[in-house]
Amino acid sequence: MIRPTVLARVPILLMDQAGRLGLRRADMMRAAGLTPQDLKDPDGRVPSLKQWKLWRYIIQEIPDVALGLKLADATASPVRFGLVGYTLVYSRTMGQALHRLERYSRIVAETIRVYVEKRGGRCRVVIDPDPRFDALRHPIDARLANILSTMRIITGSPVAPLEVSLPYSKLKDTSYHRHFFSAPLRFDEGKAALWFSPADMEQPVVHADETLVGYLDKLAAEKLRDMGGGTLAERVARALWSELGDGLPSIQRVAALLGTTPRTLQRQLRAQGRSYRQVQEQFRREMATELMHRPKMAVYEVAYLLGYADPSSFHRAFRRWHRKSPRAYRRAS
Questions:
Q1: What's the rounded mean pLDDT across residues 165-192?
Q2: How far is CA 184 from CA 99, 164, 166, in A?
Q3: Which of 87, 181, 219, 309 has a Cα-to-Cα distance from 100 of 20 to 30 A?
Q4: Which helix (H) or strand (E) holds 90?
Q5: CA 139 to CA 133: how far, in whole Å?
Q6: Could you tell me the end-to-end alpha-carbon distance of the chain, in angstroms, rounded to an integer?
């Protein structure tokens, strides 16, 4: 099964920032399992698991409540993220830039979904994380900070959200967060999000260029199509990965992501000797096995994330796969 990836630029930038905080690059690469070949091409792809290991090592080495914000480079140009960054820099307004980020974020990291929605006369920019990052708070802070810093840079103005939603419990010291975001902080929220006013969304971008951004849109669309390669079963698995932040998606949602209908999707899989249920089962097995190695994630949370109606159903499936209970498997790992 295809494993999700991130742009090689992502771990490169993270190591650059962590290096400024005192960590050695060689130690970080060793801890993450990164090789010089992985990082040779900044626009190449690196398994997101290595990015997770990199974050875990940095967090262990630097105990700082505001680490995620400090690892987000608030002054660097958005073009450090390559093609996606350029599409933001040449958008006409902040709102258009955020919608392009929504459209192209998968190029930066396949399992992180950014979406923009209107709620109660306000605009909410939401980040759905890779499930394996759920137990790590600092990557959430870094992603929110990178988005806000980018909006401040491309508009040339000190954009401040109306509020910031954070999906973790209130911190003992919120001073750095309050200073950085310059906005009310809402803890224990369901999703990580930045809230903006309609006026914010209409702020003009300094270097807007409609002709150039139209060309960049075509390049980004081509990049997304290239990333959609692989067998049909692999593309189904990738779609399941991309939506897992909200629990296992329905076949209707997966089919829509692949630009087809549930009936056609099932027929195409049968032609390849697979069923949708078999692909989903294999995906659940591989994800369950991986997530059980995350001690901070409770068994019932794994069950919920993988779309089981109740923990007992997950227990039965796990016993069928491994001939032992999830807890016994975790103890033996």
A1: 95
A2: 24, 6, 11
A3: 181
A4: none
A5: 7
A6: 22
Locate tokens 């990333």: which residue? 227
Q: Give the DSSP per-residue string, 97-151.
A: HHHHHHHHHHHHBTT-EEEEEEETTEEEEEEEPPGGGTT-HHHHHHHHHHHHHHH
Tokens for 243, please give them: 């939506």
Q: Which two tokens stand for residue 217?
A: 């849109």
The one-letter amino acid at 20: R
CA distance 82 to 232: 29
Identify the CA nearest to 153 among candidates 249, 236, 74, 69: 74
Pick the CATH number of 229-332 from 3.40.50.970, 3.40.50.720, 3.10.20.30, 1.10.10.60: 1.10.10.60
Q: Specify whether the CB–CB gap between 103 and 88 falls below 8 A.
A: no
Contact 35, 12 (CB under 8 A): no
Report the greatest alpha carbon distance in the chain. Answer: 60
- DSSP string over 239-254: HHHHHGGGSSPPHHHH
Model confidence pLDDT, tens digit, residues 129-170: 666 665 678 999 999 999 999 999 999 999 999 999 999 999
pTM for the predicted model, two decimal places = 0.77
Q: Which two tokens stand for residue 47?
A: 């398994």
Helix (H, G, I), strand (E, B) or coil at 170: coil
**For residues 217 and 313, what is the distance between their CA atoms, to the nearest angstrom?**
44
Place of tokens 């930038």: 13
What are the residue ranges spanned by the domains of the chain?
A: 1-63, 69-227, 229-332
